[in-house]
Structure formats: C-alpha cells, structure tokens
C-alpha cells in the first residue's frame, strides 16, 4: 500500500484551521482507538486563551478540560449498543442555554457510527442548521459505517494508522482459508451457506480467530475496492486471485455495500453475537447486494 502518513497530514490540517481561524462547525475524526488525547488536544487549541501548546500551564481551562470539568463541553457516548435520540435532544436543550465559559460550546459524540435512524435524523438537524459558536466533534473507528448525510456535513480528520490496513500481521494459512471462503462466496452466492461449516465455522472456532478472519475478509474487500478506484494500487500476491474475482463480480457500489456489511459483522462479533448466525446473515446480505445492488444494509 502507498506510504501516506495520515497522522502528519491531519496534524497539519488542524494546525492550519486554528491558525487561520477557519473553524468548521463539525468535524468527523476517524481514529484507530478513539484516542481522547488527540481530540482533547484539538479542543484545547480552540478554547485556550493563551494559544495552547502541548504543555499549557498558563490557565486552568486546559486542566479542567482534561479532568472533564469544563462546562462548555458535552460528551455523548452510546447508551448500550446505540446512541439514542433522547440523548441528542437533551444535548440540544443544554446548548439552547447561554455559554458558561466562553464563546465556544463543543459537543463530542463517541462512536458516531452507533446512531440509529432516529438519532441520526436528530443530529442531522443540528448539523444542517449550525449555530454560531457551537462545534460538533464526532468520533468513529469506521467512517464507512457513518451515514453519508452526516459525513458530507463534517470536515474529515483521518488519524487512522496505515499499519491498521495491512495483511502482514496475519497468518498465511488464515489468509488462505479466508480467500477460499471468498472464492465460494463470490461464485456460489447464496449457495455458499451450504458450505459455511466446511469453509468457515469448522476452521475458525475460537472467538479471537473469528475476529481475525473477519478482519482479513474486510481487508481483501477493501483492497479490491481500492484497486477498482486505482489500477496501480498495490495488491499483496497472496490475495491477488481473490481480488481479481471480487473485481470481476462487483462494481464500486456493490463493494461499498459489502464492505459496510463486513464492518457491521466486525462490530457485532464484539458483542458476543453468535458467529455462525452472523456469517449466515453476511451471506444473505451479500446475496441481496448481488441481486438488487442495494445501497444500504
């Protein structure tokens, strides 16, 4: 893969934004680990009255932000598996009040991909009609899981590390097994359910192995997507046949949908959902993409 340092690029974007006083009303951070330090460093640079540096000791605002005691910052995190409409309505009510600390009020939404339709529609109204002095910061590990309508209204800040997108950390045999599954999945479509035990369930038995296998599945489809966009995109030799097959059987829109399905499966496996049922569901949803080219799953 091309060696692009997303972190340095994002640092430069944020530095220029603040120095030129051209703050957006909404930012969407894509992060490897929802890193608080990166996000709250950005917030401090916005509100610090002393031109915040990494070790600001001139005001108590920065220390209060770090300790969670700064009144003009509101934090939203999923309530259970989802961010709920009621949480965002409460946020709006809070922000109808006058700023307590400064002329900037900031809300941070963790796991922005966990908004259901109802909560997403609520935040969309907030993003579509931004009020002066209110800044939204949304965090996600999977930007493809965030609704396009939300993504389009935010400035994207990509802090994902390139090593997160590499097959080199996975065992060759595991990659080969996932490739075999893909070959059947792409050629036999819904019929691959009959072979799911042979190709997947009996091979990846431990939860940790299932998680790794799904990660490999994601990467192979992601590489295929990137290769369709750019013929010069470098594909590892050990997945070349699978990528060629995927590209032959799918267009860009299909691959977007399939990647979203895989990422949804990645998320669900973390909540101890039955992995066998998840893979059956993945095959069924893939078949829907192949037959109807659905745009949302």
Task: Please provide a written account of the structure.
With 297 residues, the protein is an alpha/beta fold. It folds into two domains: 6-164, Rossmann fold (3-Layer(aba) Sandwich); 167-292, Zinc Finger, Delta Prime, domain 3, CATH 1.20.272. The chain is 52% helix and 9% strand. It has helices at residues 6-19, 36-47, 61-67, 85-95, 117-128, 148-151, 172-188, 196-201, 207-229, 240-249, 252-270, 275-292; strands spanning 26-31, 73-76, 105-109, 134-140, 155-159. A five-stranded parallel beta sheet has the order 2-3-4-1-5. Helix 2 runs antiparallel to helix 3 and helix 7 runs parallel beside helix 10 (240-249). It is elongated and about 60 Å long. The two termini are 28 Å apart. The relative contact order is 0.11.
- The third-level CATH topology of the largest domain is Rossmann fold
Helical stretch count? 12
Shape: elongated
Describe the main β-sheet briefly: 5 strands, parallel
Average of per-residue pLDDT values:
82
Count of individual beta strands:
5
Radius of gyration: 21 Å
> What is the level 1 CATH name of the largest domain?
Alpha Beta
CATH superfamily of the largest domain: P-loop containing nucleotide triphosphate hydrolases
Spatial arrangement of strands, main beta sheet = 2-3-4-1-5
Specify the CATH architecture of the largest domain: 3-Layer(aba) Sandwich
